[in-house]
From TrEMBL:
Cross-referenced Pfam families: Aminotran_5
Domain Aminotransferase class V: start-end pairs: 25-398
Single Gene Ontology MF annotation: lyase activity
Lyase recorded as keyword: yes
Stated name of the protein: Selenocysteine lyase/Cysteine desulfurase
Top-rank lineage group of the source organism: Bacteria
Keywords: Lyase, Pyridoxal phosphate
Originating organism: Lutimaribacter pacificus
Lineage: Bacteria, Pseudomonadati, Pseudomonadota, Alphaproteobacteria, Rhodobacterales
Keyword Lyase annotated: yes
Alphabetized InterPro entries for the sequence: Aminotrans_V_dom, PyrdxlP-dep_Trfase, PyrdxlP-dep_Trfase_major, PyrdxlP-dep_Trfase_small
């Protein structure tokens, strides 16, 4: 089934915004456009629900119901219980809170496995636990390909490992890691699993319940929503870890790892992400329960992205003056494409901006990954990232602009 790109773009007000006309957006990995349902829900909340939620009066009752709706519907799309999903101010802060819980729960001498493929959000907070006597073991990428080899992980696993942290896909390498296989390996060794899904979720929400990780983190603002971090913590782990919230919230799973009060309006508006996914499913004839609809939308998005991505990869592979980071086959990666041009990347991004291409140049908080592949983080990479609402004509415009500046 082909994605109806005209229907999709009609759901995003940005494509009708006069100030954005004539520009193609290729820095989606830094934050996607917001879909119409999210904007509508956020506006409505601020207009008529901006009160303390869960009270007995109408506006308060509706505010609380909309917050609960967002959590329940997103959880259903991801195949988990509604109280296993919670919100926080960002994925970085959510990970930091989780790391503090593990600091209290683990014993000195026990170990955590991290990678050097990650965005710093899913490696830095865990590495800091070395200060508490916890051993940090690094699962390193291949310096040529940037890939993580599960066989290398096997050499790091033993009875001391309590947690394995890795990305669903890297925000500069782009390769989609085999989450099910890696999770099974970690569980067989007696370890829990934390997956950073920030760079994957915008390309289709995964069914975390079927995939099996104990923690799955992603950012709503990169998934067509407001600036919130969303985390799934499965019950078997969440009830073991020490409560990080007010003591009287310890009995509520979705509150245990949110020490500050939630942003009521943004949480409620996140239900608009589910509205959008349901609209996509309905328009394309995808039926079934929430998880089935989510899976259908996931495949629809990925199919469109893969078709658009391969010509860009082929173009970059053919240029001897640049190095494409990550796989050259579209089906193996997300459409987050980092290019080492062997010169400072920021001026290249500025040159693309002059040609109506919105892209970025820098290290993108993936300093360890770039260093692991021999790229100077100070020079950075040119990152070209898109999602399912990107039009084929925009990819051709991008390739034409690259031809001029490279």
């Amino acid at each position: 089934m082909d994605l109806d790109i005209d229907f999709v773009r009609a759901q995003f007000p940005a494509f009708a915004e006069p100030s954005l006309q004539g520009q193609a957006f290729f820095e989606n990995a830094g934050g996607s456009y917001t879909c119409g349902p999210v904007i509508e829900r956020l506006t409505r909340f601020y207009r008529s629900r901006k009160v303390q939620p869960y009270g007995p009066y109408e506006a308060s009752r509706l505010a609380g119901e909309e917050m609960d709706e967002a959590r329940a519907r997103l959880a259903a799309l991801m195949g988990v219980d509604s109280d296993e999903l919670s919100f926080g101010p960002s994925t970085t802060q959510n990970t930091y809170v989780l790391a503090q819980a593990f600091r209290q729960w683990m014993q000195p001498g026990e170990a955590i496995v991290v990678t050097n493929q990650d965005h710093e959000a899913n490696t830095g907070p865990w590495r800091r636990l070395a200060e508490a006597g916890i051993e940090i073991r690094e699962w390193r990428i291949d310096p040529e390909t940037g890939a993580l080899d599960p066989d290398d992980l096997a050499d790091l696993l033993d009875e001391k490992v309590r947690l394995v942290c890795f990305p669903h896909c890297s925000n500069v390498v782009g390769q989609v890691n085999p989450v099910v296989e890696i999770t099974a390996m970690a569980h067989a060794a007696g370890a829990f699993v934390c997956v950073d899904g920030v760079s994957y979720a915008p390309h289709g929400l995964p069914n975390v319940g079927l995939m099996g990780p104990d923690i799955y983190l992603f950012s709503a603002y990169k998934t067509y929503g407001p600036h919130q971090g969303i985390m799934v913590i499965r019950r078997a782990l969440g009830e073991q870890l020490p409560n990080q919230a007010h003591y009287f919230n310890a009995g509520t799973l979705y509150k245990r790892f949110t020490p500050a009060g939630p942003d009521h309006a943004q949480v409620a508006a996140s239900a608009g992400i589910a509205d959008y996914f349901d609209a996509l499913a309905g328009h394309h004839g995808i039926t079934g329960d929430a998880a089935a609809r989510g899976a259908g939308v996931h495949d629809l998005m990925r199919g469109h992205e893969v078709r658009l991505l391969q010509p860009l990869l082929d173009y970059l592979k053919a240029r001897n003056s640049v190095r494409l980071l990550g796989p050259g086959r579209a089906g193996d990666r997300a459409p987050t494409v980092a290019v080492d041009a062997r010169r400072p990347a920021a001026p290249l991004a500025a040159a693309l901006a002059d040609r109506g291409i919105m892209a970025g140049g820098g290290d993108f908080y993936a300093v360890r990954a770039l260093e692991g592949m021999g790229v100077d983080p100070a020079q950075g990479v040119l990152r070209l990232s898109f999602v399912h609402y990107t039009h084929p004509d925009e990819v051709q415009k991008l390739i034409g602009a690259l031809d001029e500046i490279l």
